[in-house]
Design goal:
Layout (H helix, E strand, L loop, with lengths): L2 H19 L29 H8 L18 E2 L5 E5 L4 H6 L6 H12 L8 E4 L13 H18 L3 E5 L1 H8 L5 H4 L4 E3 L2 E6 L2 H6 L4 H17 L12
Parallel strand pairs: 2-3, 2-4, 4-6
Antiparallel strand pairs: 1-3, 5-6
């Protein structure tokens, strides 16, 4: 037998005797059979797709029953390197026609809310939990959310925002994996895999309940503060002496 092979077997034998003495009967398997990219929001990985690749993978999606009644898939739009991502529930009438998120009355209010914190729509990324309009604007059903949301998670991993603002109950519950109501969830940050997640009321809810705007304003101020405090120093411009 080759001398180096004999030495290797000797080392292995001593190592196994050492493990036996220590009472260790099994060793952890090397490598991770689970694919972290499939359940992670933010971790960079060679498997992370670009937004274009996620869109191509979605294709002319017919994975759930909502494809039967939609006019357009509403994929999402905005800055692919956005620090802030806003995620709503699903497309409504106007969004279904135009194929763009938040373009109806609720969308116009969202644009105003963003402008109030000195952000333009083009600076953020806007998407929804589901990408096709439910008939008569009914709530999304759990099988639809389950089928569609993996594409949203791929978008989040492509963008890797610093903050996600979940707009309304369905977005907050899906992203935080909870059944708690938006009234209990809103108004504070939750950290998920390095991303700050803050739920607030959906703009459509504000159109019906304008007296709740002040709470959303408080949430928006928290977002502004966080973004300012965590701004990249190289983006702040020259220091004044
Ligand atoms: S809602 Fe999502 S999963 Fe369902 S058909 Fe539309 S894109 Fe596909």
């Amino acid at each position: 037998m080759d001398r180096s092979l004999q030495e290797m077997i000797g080392h292995l034998k001593s190592f196994l005797e050492y493990l036996d003495e220590m009472g260790i009967e099994t060793l952890p398997a090397s490598g991770n059979p689970a694919d972290p990219a499939s359940c992670s929001l933010s971790a960079p990985s060679p498997r992370n797709l670009t937004l274009e690749e996620v869109r191509a993978e979605l294709g002319d999606c017919r994975r759930c029953k909502l494809h039967q009644t939609r006019r357009n898939i509403v994929f999402g739009e905005g800055n692919p390197k956005a620090r802030l991502m806003l995620i709503g529930e699903g497309p409504g009438f106007d969004e279904d026609i135009q194929g763009k998120p938040f373009v109806g009355k609720a969308g116009q209010l969202l644009t105003k809310i963003l402008q109030a914190i000195h952000l333009q729509r083009e600076e953020v990324y806007i998407a929804n939990i589901i990408k096709c309009r439910p008939p008569q604007n009914r709530n999304p059903e759990s099988d639809e959310i389950e089928t569609c949301s993996p594409f949203l998670f791929k978008q989040i991993r492509a963008i890797r925002p610093q903050i996600i603002c979940a707009l309304g109950t369905f977005a907050a519950q899906t992203l935080l994996k909870t059944d708690a109501k938006i009234t209990a969830l809103r108004g504070r940050f939750y950290e998920r895999e390095g991303i700050q997640l803050i739920p607030t009321f959906h703009p459509a809810f504000l159109l019906r309940n304008p007296d709740r705007k002040k709470e959303v304003w408080e949430d928006m101020k928290q977002i502004t503060r966080w973004l300012l405090e965590h701004q990249d120093p190289y983006e702040r411009g020259p220091e004044k002496s």
